[in-house]
Amino acid sequence: MAQSEQEILEGLAEIVNEETGLDTESVQTEKSFTDDLDIDSLSMMTIVVNAEEKFGVRIPDDEVKNLKTVGDAVSFIAKNQS
Amino acid sequence: MTAAPAPKGTGTIVPSQGSAHSRIMGVGGYRPERVVMNAEIVDQIDSSDQWIRERSGIVSRRFAAKDESVVDMAEAATRDALESAGLEAAQVDAVIVATVTHPYQTPAAAPILADRLGIRGAAFDIGAACAGYCHGVSLASDMVRGGSAQHVLVVGVEKLSDFTDPHDRGTAFIFGDGAGAAIVGPSETPCIGPTVWGSDGSQWQTISQRDSWVELKDTGGIGSPAIGMAGQSVFRWAVWGMAPVAQKALDAAGVRAEDLDAFIPHQANMRIIDAMIKQLKLPEDIPVARDIAETANTSAASIPLATERMLREGEAPHGGLALQIGFGAGLVYAAQVVVLP
C-alpha cells in the first residue's frame, strides 16, 4: 500500500538514523545527503538498499546520484511505490 | 556419396584416478618491501588520511619495486607456501596463477613461474580478478580429485600499482601489490568444500580496464591501461549480492556459521567486510580477516595473504574451518569452506 510523503520521510529518517546515528529530527526534505548530513557514497548505498526493502521500490544504481536531497529520495519513492 | 565413417571400436580409455578428497597443504605470502602510507597518496586525489580510512579502512599498502614483476612476487610467495606444505617444487605438477596485472597478454605468467621453480607440469593463468584465488582453489581441488594432478600450486598475485591511475579518487587509495600462494594436494578427509560460484557479465563495466589494448594502440599508446570502478554499484553487489553466496557455501559444505574458525572474505574494502558480516549475521566471536588495513586491496592475492597473516599471527587455528569468498571484475565470484593448513 502506498504511503504518504510524510510517512516515507519518517521511515527514511529511521533508516538514516540506523546507518549514521543522526537524529531523525535532522532528516528534513531540504537537507542534502552529502553536504548537510555528511553521508558518504557507501552509506548512501546502504540507505538506498534499506529503503528499497522498507518501501518496496527499486532504486537503480544510476538513479542514486540524482537523489541529492532527502526530498529527492522521498519523491522518487512516492512516485515509484506500487 | 560415401557412407558416414564408423568408429573402429578397438580401443578403450583408461579412466583417470584421483584422490578421494583434497586439502590445502600450505599457504605462503609475499609483501613487497615498500610501505606506502595514505599521506603519499592523498595529494593527487585531493583527499586526506582520515577520508581514506573512513571510506576503506586502509591505513597503508605495499607497492612493488619498479623492476619487481608479478612473477618475482609469485615466486617468493610460492617458496613460502612450499615450506609451509613441507613439499619440494619438484612435487608440484600443475601451476595456476590468478592475476589481472601480468603485463603480457601472452604468454601467461604461470609457465614462467613454473620454469623459475623447475616445474615442467601444466601451467596456466586464470582471469577471475579478485575472485581468482577461490576459482583456482576450486579448479585445483577438482584436478586433485579428478586425477589430472597430484599437487597443484595456486597463486594469487597482483602488481596493481602498474594499473592504477594515481589521480582517480575512486581507486587510487584502494589498490596494493602482493602475492599469496597455496598448495592443494590429496587428502584422506574432505578439506575443501563445494565451491559456490557464478557470474553476472551484464555488470562487466562496473570494474574494468578503462580502455581496451586496441583502443590504447590506436591512440599511439597515450593513456594508461588503468582499472576503473563504479564504487557504489560494487558495494551494493558485494554486500547484498555476496552475503547470500557466502551462506550458500556454508550450506553446501554442511557447516554452520558458528562452526567457523575464520571468515576470510576478499579484502576489497573494510566497509564491504563490515556490511557483509552484518548481512551474513556472522557470530561476533568469529575472527574476520582485516588484512586490508595494512595491505589494501590486492585483488587475487588478498585471500591467501590474509590467510597467511591470520595463521602466522595466531588469529586463526591450523586445522580450523574457514569460509573464503572472492568477488570482483566480471562480475564474478567464488566461495568455499576450507580446512586451514
Sheet with most strands of chain A: none
- Terminal Cα separation of chain B, in Å? 63 Å
Tell me the number of strands of chain A: 0
Helix content estimate of chain A: 55-70%
Structural features, described:
The complex is a heterodimer of chains A (82) and B (341). With 82 residues, chain A is an all-alpha fold. Chain A has helices at residues 5-20, 41-55, 61-64, 70-80. Chain A contains four helices and no strands. Chain A is globular, with a radius of gyration of 11 Å. With 341 residues, chain B is of the alpha/beta class. Chain B folds into two domains: 21-187, Peroxisomal Thiolase, Chain A, domain 1, CATH 3.40.47; 196-339, 3-Layer(aba) Sandwich (Peroxisomal Thiolase, Chain A, domain 1). Chain B is 31% helix and 23% strand. Chain B is built from ten helices and 13 strands. In chain B, helix 7 (231-253) packs across helix 8 (270-280). The mean pLDDT of chain B is 95. Classes of the chains: A mainly alpha (82), B alpha/beta (341). The interface between A and B is small, with 10 and 13 residues.
Short description:
The complex is a heterodimer of chains A (82) and B (341). By secondary structure, chain A is an all-alpha fold.
Give the SSE map:
The complex is a heterodimer of chains A (82) and B (341).
Chain A lengths: L4 H16 L20 H15 L5 H4 L5 H11 L2
Helix pairs in contact in A: 1-2, 1-4
Chain B lengths: L20 E10 L3 E4 L1 H4 L6 H8 L3 E4 L6 H16 L8 E5 L10 H8 L5 E5 L5 H15 L5 E8 L17 E11 L8 E4 L7 E3 L3 H6 L8 E3 L1 H23 L8 E4 L4 H11 L11 H4 L6 H11 L8 E8 L3 E8 L2
Parallel strand pairs in B: 4-5, 4-6, 11-12
Antiparallel strand pairs in B: 1-7, 2-3, 6-7, 8-13, 9-10, 12-13
Helix pairs in contact in B: 3-4, 7-8
Give a quick set of tags describing it:
A: 82 residues; mainly alpha; 4 helices; 56% helix; B: alpha/beta; Peroxisomal Thiolase, Chain A, domain 1; 2 domains; 5-stranded mixed sheet; 4-stranded mixed sheet; 10 helices
